């Protein structure tokens, strides 16, 4: 029997396993984008040390923009990956939910006065309350999906439609403005630290999820439910509960991302804040090579996918693509990436590689 | 080409990443012959058929068909159909929401579906000529499984097929349905169709086939006339070793039966569930192997599902080790040390995309709880231990379970439950659709576990197996327990009589 199993060795085997490896896709995309920029304009990668209006050192440049704005997306991608894996569908209400949780932060900070001189509540309290609210909305989505068995996209369509109105209603449709300096740190820079704060927040979130995946059975349970709900139940899992929980976790991610968003502006624009961010978050999951129909997932690949998307957006801005036309260009690149990452195409690529190197390998095997 | 041969495959090779699935395999099918293709799981039967039907491309070798001088090239199932090769798979691949006639003509192009009246008429003619009692207008879903299977065959036959491949067509049929199918097969044989019959049921091979080709580990063992190859020989050819294992198992039986002085491990009174079984009483002693028997649909699975809490339990008391416990969902049962290997391996058992390792540790990881995952090293250690213990054939612990053969998948699931170290193990059809060797392995394992003090409930639709392993049988009819057999009563005749009991009185 043992002679029927052939061990793949040498370079061909290495590349084969590389092609098959999920994380290959976002890394390849990242490299392609980097090479493209290097050829077109190497100054893309320039990082300059400047000084903020308060005289603190601040790094700026395209790469900084990418790790700054890509971080919100990475945080959302964490939650979206879990939701996708467990329920085999996506939450499209993420942008609207960010509007709500951002609105809650401002409401708590400003109290009844929309432009207060001093904060009406500590920032941490505002953040925690927004977390609770966002998780409640996540729980609402989760209940519809897990217990009422509504398709995720349809279930979250409700909040997608109503979310921004709810956000406006929370602040009586006023535009509160926070004048406190500390509040801007979270979406900007902490005095003395030249790297944007969102990146640190994202790192913290990644650490938390990494620890959760290592020291709990989260990964095993979520994947098992996503792949085969029936047998998961017979193995003692509660599939509904697990699906529900992933939506609550995504709610928490939404609260963190929303907090960063309102901190950037110290204010909010209900109809524009985090617009279409859900699509980018879903794309991040897809770019990470995760099946949008659920099941197995790779968290690192999703997070990388988020930064790849931001890399792409920044590259397109750099190419002076008008913001109105941006989505169209993005779509083209995304199509190319998604097609390349499709299993069918990857298999063909592997075969092609085998043919190129195959002659040698076959000889050595014979 | 051999005289009268309708199909010849010569020197077929096929390699998958890591596995040589077929090596230098020959296969010849004559006109008007029913030819059994036998082998254990993973022997290469499915691969050979998929090569023949164009699902896979062979690496090398040639295929000849009668009427084509040169070797033919089959690159897709459509091309195979053009050459007159039709396949009916184990899982019925028709559209249940369409009518019988529509199913027979769908995808045939050239406006076959346009004239409804004509379509129904010609479908009716074919069905009648094949003796299939179904109206062409009837919706397929409303027909029994056997009829659906036969409609699939009728569809294949009408496409002017010269070679008909039946891939485990009988595994979901009951006896009378199988008889109908065999009649149909014989009719087709008389018309000169060559039939390739893949099955795990030895009885059926000897009932209906003319020739047997045996494969083992991807190579050809040989082609035999049915009269030249007695059963024992066939089994030993498939396994590649002389077989007196069957006898071994029988000998052990007496040891398992003397357990009357042990206290019951599990006891149920008036247990019933939402799946419509009548309230039943049941107990099992320490180290005992017992079984539920009855016809398909008699409620044997529903009983054990109620014990495990897999269906919603609606009434009854349950005692574990003499103490009253409440089992409403699987996790409750698992915490009481009960393990349940579900009947439908694909639907209720494996988690397809996960690795062999993750599949093995899954149940124990659920039992240990959310905050106590095993380290990778520990999980691999567990997995490797059971891969060795149960002789699971897998490339590595990381291989996705779905790429294993059926028997090995079943072993992985067994490993999963054994790892939870249960007091009471329920096996619902653990040997369905797997090869003879694994079947014997599993039966031996059951007896070994019982001798070590585990209580086992064993369900199988093959009465032989039950007789070999169980010391007590609960007999069911129409979702009701109708009798209990033990000791000398454990004979084929007695079981049949008890199952049929109602009609006699």
Explain how this protein is built.
- The complex is a heterodimer of chains A (366) and B (505).
- With 366 residues, chain A is mainly α.
- Chain A has one domain (24-357): ABC transporter involved in vitamin B12 uptake, BtuC.
- In chain A, 69% of the residues lie in helices and 2% in strands.
- Chain A contains 15 helices and 2 strands.
- In chain A, strands 1-2 form a two-stranded antiparallel ribbon.
- In chain A, strand 1 and strand 2 (57-60) form a beta hairpin.
- The longest helix of chain A is centred in the C-terminal third of the chain and has 27 residues, at 239-265.
- Chain A is globular and about 70 Å long.
- The two termini of chain A are 19 Å apart.
- In chain B, strand 16, helix 16 and strand 17 (455-459) form a beta-alpha-beta unit.
- Chain B has 3 domains: 5-239, Rossmann fold, CATH 3.40.50.300; 244-337 and 423-505, 3-Layer(aba) Sandwich (Rossmann fold); 347-421, no CATH class.
- Chain B is 38% helix and 24% strand.
- Chain B is an alpha/beta fold and 505 residues long.
- In chain B, the strands form 4 sheets. Chain B has a 6-stranded mixed beta sheet with strand order 5-6-7-3-8-9, with helices on both faces.
- Chain B has helices at 45-52, 77-82, 100-105, 116-129, 145-158, 175-190, 202-208, 231-239, 245-257, 300-308, 330-335, 345-349, 356-368, 376-389, 406-419, 436-451, 463-469, 492-504, and strands at 5-16, 19-30, 34-38, 60-65, 85-88, 163-167, 194-198, 211-216, 219-225, 264-273, 280-285, 289-293, 313-320, 323-325, 338-341, 424-428, 455-459, 472-477, 480-486.
- Chain B is built from 18 helices and 19 strands.
- The interface between A and B is medium-sized, with 29 and 38 residues.
């Amino acid at each position: 029997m043992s002679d029927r199993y052939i061990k793949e060795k040498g370079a061909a085997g290495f590349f084969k396993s590389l092609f098959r490896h999920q994380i290959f896709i976002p890394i390849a995309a990242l490299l392609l984008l980097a090479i493209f920029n290097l050829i077109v304009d190497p100054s893309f990668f320039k990082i300059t040390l400047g000084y903020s209006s308060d005289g603190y050192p601040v790094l700026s440049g395209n790469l900084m923009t990418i790790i700054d704005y890509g971080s919100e997306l990475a945080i959302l991608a964490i939650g979206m990956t879990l939701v996708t894996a467990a329920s085999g569908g996506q939450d499209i209400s993420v942008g609207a939910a960010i509007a709500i949780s951002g609105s809650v932060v401002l409401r708590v900070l400003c109290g009844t006065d929309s432009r207060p001189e001093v904060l009406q509540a500590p920032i941490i309290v505002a953040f925690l309350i927004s977390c609770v609210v966002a998780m409640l909305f996540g729980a609402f989505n989760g209940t519809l999906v897990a217990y009422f068995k509504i398709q995720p996209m349809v279930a979250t369509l409700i909040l997608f439609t109503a979310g921004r109105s709810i956000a406006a209603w929370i602040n009586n449709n006023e535009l509160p403005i926070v004048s406190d300096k500390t509040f801007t740190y979270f979406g900007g820079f902490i005095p003395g630290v030249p790297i944007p704060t969102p990146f640190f927040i994202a790192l913290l979130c990644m650490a938390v999820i990494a620890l959760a995946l290592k020291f709990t059975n989260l990964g095993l349970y979520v994947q098992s439910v996503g792949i085969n709900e029936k047998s998961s139940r017979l193995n003692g899992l509660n599939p509904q509960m697990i699906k529900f929980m992933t939506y609550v976790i995504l709610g928490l991610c939404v609260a963190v991302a929303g907090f960063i968003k309102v901190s950037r502006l110290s204010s909010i624009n209900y109809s524009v804040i985090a617009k279409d961010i859900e699509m980018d978050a879903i794309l991040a999951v897809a770019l990470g090579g995760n099946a949008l129909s659920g099941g197995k997932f790779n968290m690192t690949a999703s997070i990388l996918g988020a930064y790849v998307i931001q890399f792409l957006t920044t590259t397109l801005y750099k190419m002076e693509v008008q913001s109105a036309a941006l989505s169209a260009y993005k779509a083209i690149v995304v199509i190319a990436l998604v097609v390349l990452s499709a299993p069918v195409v990857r298999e063909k690529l592997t075969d092609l590689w085998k043919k190129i190197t195959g002659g040698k390998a076959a000889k050595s095997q014979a | 080409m051999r005289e009268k041969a309708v199909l010849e495959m010569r020197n077929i090779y096929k390699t998958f990443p890591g596995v040589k699935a077929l090596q230098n395999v020959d296969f010849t099918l004559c006109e008007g012959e029913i030819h059994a293709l036998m082998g254990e799981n993973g022997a290469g039967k499915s691969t050979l058929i998929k090569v023949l039907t164009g699902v896979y491309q062979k690496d090398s070798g040639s295929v000849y068909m009668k009427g084509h001088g040169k070797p033919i090239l089959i690159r897709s199932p459509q091309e195979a159909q053009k050459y007159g090769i039709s396949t009916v798979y184990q899982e019925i691949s028709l559209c249940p929401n369409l009518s019988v006639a529509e199913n027979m003509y769908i995808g045939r192009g050239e406006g076959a579906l346009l004239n409804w009246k004509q379509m129904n008429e010609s479908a009716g003619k074919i069905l009648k000529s094949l003796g299939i009692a179904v109206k062409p207008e009837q919706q397929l879903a409303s027909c029994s499984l056997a009829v659906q299977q036969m409609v699939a065959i009728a569809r294949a036959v009408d496409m002017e097929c010269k070679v008909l491949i039946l891939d485990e067509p009988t595994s979901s049929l009951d006896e009378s349905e199988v008889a109908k199918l065999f009649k149909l097969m014989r009719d087709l044989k008389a018309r000169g169709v060559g039939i390739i019959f893949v099955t795990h049921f030895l009885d059926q091979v000897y009932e209906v086939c003319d020739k047997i080709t045996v494969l083992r580990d991807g190579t050809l063992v040989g082609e035999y006339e049915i009269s030249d190859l007695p059963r024992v020989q066939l089994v030993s050819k498939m396994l590649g070793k002389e077989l007196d294992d069957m006898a071994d198992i029988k000998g052990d039986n007496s040891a398992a039966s003397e357990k009357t002085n042990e206290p019951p491990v599990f006891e149920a009174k008036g247990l019933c569930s939402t799946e419509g079984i009548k309230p039943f009483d049941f107990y099992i002693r320490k180290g005992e192997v017992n079984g539920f028997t009855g016809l398909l649909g008699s409620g044997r699975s529903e009983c054990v599902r109620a014990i495990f809490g897999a269906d919603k339990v609606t009434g009854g008391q349950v005692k574990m080790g003499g103490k009253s416990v409440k089992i409403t969902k699987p996790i409750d049962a698992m915490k009481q040390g009960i393990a349940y290997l579900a009947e439908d391996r694909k639907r209720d058992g494996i988690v397809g995309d996960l690795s062999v390792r993750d599949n093995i540790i899954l149940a124990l990881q659920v039992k240990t709880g959310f905050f106590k995952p095993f380290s990778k090293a520990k999980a691999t250690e567990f997995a490797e231990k059971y891969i060795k213990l149960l002789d699971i054939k897998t490339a590595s612990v990381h291989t996705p379970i779905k790429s294993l053969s059926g028997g090995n998948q079943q072993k992985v699931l067994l490993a999963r439950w054994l790892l939870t170290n249960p007091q009471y193990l329920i096996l619902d059809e653990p040997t369905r659709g797997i090869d003879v060797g694994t079947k014997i392995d599993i039966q031996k394992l059951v007896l070994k576990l019982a001798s070590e003090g585990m209580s086992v409930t064993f369900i199988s639709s093959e009465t032989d197996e039950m007789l070999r392993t169980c010391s007590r049988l609960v007999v069911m009819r129409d979702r009701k327990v109708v009798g209990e057999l033990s000791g000398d009563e454990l004979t084929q005749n007695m079981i049949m009589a008890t199952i049929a009991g109602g009609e006699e009185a």
